[in-house]
Specification:
Length: about 400
């Protein structure tokens, strides 16, 4: 088996393909081909070097992965939510870090500008973000406020002809090379607003976070604001309060639910193929009951997650998916993918820890995915609150 060859065949135990439209399949297949051609051959090396493969940005824009569901008049691909999900699934099948770049650009930068911005802001920023000419980042988390962003201390003052922004955001995907950042900060009354901060504004810096063992092909950093003068026209006017950033997270978490499915499917596919080829005790290891148990449980969990995610996609298309339903899918699918990655890694024995196969990289990446966009625990508490009506956060 040639390790670098991408032989991926997607598992479809319950014939889910029959539920997809021709357009869905076209989008999915085109994304898969792009991943096989442009991501698989290079991603391991970039992850090992902890470098972001910047050359992928152009291709991501070309396949419509920046703003898949943003209307085409603003440069988006004008697709439905199912197509968006399928794209994220295929891209994360390649690497969670590459999918992260798409999630941030589409759901955390383009979406708030589209949904909460005015027409001038949409026309100024969205086409450049869709084409990949500009890359964006999303600043919500702070050093002392992760799971509870409402406590944020980043704030701005009305100075008459501009706002003066101070504070710092931490753990920000794409920060080190972003051209624009959608930053969440409090006004003088303590109300949260979104501001568009552009690289080059005096006092705005983006130091990189080093020594990550996870999401190594994605660049992470801080957003630091030291008396940054932000023009008044850069405030997103149409929504404020914590519900504004949380609304963006709904869209990104939805994409992650699909993405994690892709990582799980890649681990399963790799382990299944290996189990038929690897001979021990004169037999393929796939013939041993212990290995079959792992594979049978993997395909069962993948199939359940495919059904859950497909239904969520239908609800999202109809505008009926609730935040709590999205939380359930994000939590379930990421945890499912992590467990499958761990079992798949064991099935490859020593080979499983090498970069000759994608499993260890997926496994390490998923440790970030299970934490960002709301931790595993936070999503459980969201489900708990939804079914009981009782808040167990505080
Ligand atoms: P709480 O009082 O419950 O809610 C405040 C207001 O927000 C509304 N709301 C939502 N609106 C839209 N979508 C949602 N999912 C919403 N959840 C709540 C809510 O109705 C309320 O509105 P209003 O009008 O009454 O004011 O807020 P809380 O302070 O108790 O916190 C709730 C909690 C813990 C669930 C929430 O804060 C949370 O989700 N925490 C997790 C933080 C998080 O997910 N951070 C992600 C940062 S971004 C990131 O990780 C990007 S990774 C990028 C990549 O892919 O690389
Ligand atoms: P904490 O909130 O300190 O949580 C620590 C532990 O306590 C967790 O296990 C948590 O589940 C638990 N906990 C917290 N509150 C409760 C509670 N009420 N009940 C029970 N348990 C609780 N943020 C952005 O804004 N933009 C980005 O682009 C971005 N990208 C990221 C990229 C990476 C690689 C990573 C790792 C993070 C990124 N984040 C980003 C930040 C991410 O969203 C936060 O790490 C996450 O929300 C958790 O916050 P925290 O790390 O401060 O953990």
């Amino acid at each position: 088996m040639s390790a670098r060859q991408d032989l991926y065949q997607h598992p479809d135990y319950y014939l889910m393909d029959e539920l997809l439209t021709e357009e869905h399949k076209l989008v999915r297949d085109a994304t898969r081909e792009w991943v096989k051609r442009d991501v698989t051959p290079i991603i391991e090396e970039y992850a090992q070097r902890a470098a972001f493969p910047q050359q992928l940005v152009k291709g991501l824009a070309e396949i419509g992965a920046f703003g898949p569901y943003i209307p085409s008049e603003y440069g988006g691909a004008g697709l439905d939510q199912m197509s968006y999900g399928l794209m994220m699934m295929e891209i994360e099948r390649g690497d969670s870090g590459v999918r992260s770049t798409c999630s941030v650009q589409s759901s955390l930068v383009m979406y708030p500008i589209f949904a909460y911005g005015n027409e001038e802001q949409r026309r100024k920023y969205l086409p450049k973000l869709a084409s990949g000419e500009w890359l964006g980042s999303f600043g919500l988390t702070e050093p002392n406020f992760g799971s509870n962003p409402s406590g944020m201390i980043t704030h701005f003052k009305d100075m008459g002809d501009h706002y003066l922004l101070n504070g710092a955001k931490m753990w920000i995907s794409n920060a080190p090379f972003c051209d624009v950042a959608v930053v969440w900060a409090k006004d003088e009354k303590g109300r949260i607003h979104g501001l568009i901060v552009e690289r080059g504004m005096k006092g705005f810096t983006t130091p990189e976070t080093h020594n990550k063992w996870s999401l190594r092909a994605s660049s992470t950093g801080e957003l630091v604001f030291d008396n940054v003068k932000v023009p008044k026209e850069n405030l997103l006017p149409n929504k404020s309060g914590l519900g504004a950033p949380l609304g963006c997270l709904d869209s990104a978490r939805y994409g992650i639910a699909w993405g994690a499915l892709g990582a799980a499917m890649d681990c399963y596919d790799t382990a299944l193929r290996y189990s038929k080829e690897r001979i021990q005790f004169d037999r393929p290891i796939g013939g041993f009951q212990l290995q079959q148990k792992k594979l049978a449980e993997m395909i069962t969990e993948i199939t359940k997650a495919q059904l859950l995610t497909f239904r969520l996609g239908q609800l999202k298309n109809e505008g009926r998916a609730t935040s709590a339903q999205i939380s359930m899918a994000k939590r379930n699918n990421v945890n499912m993918a992590l467990e499958i990655a761990r079992d798949a890694r064991q099935m490859l024995g020593g080979m499983g820890i090498t970069g000759d196969y994608p499993i260890m990289r997926h496994m390490m990446n998923l440790e970030s995915v299970v934490t960002y966009e709301g931790t595993h625990d936070i999503h459980l508490l969201i489900t708990g609150m939804d079914v009981t009506g009782l808040n167990a956060f505080k």
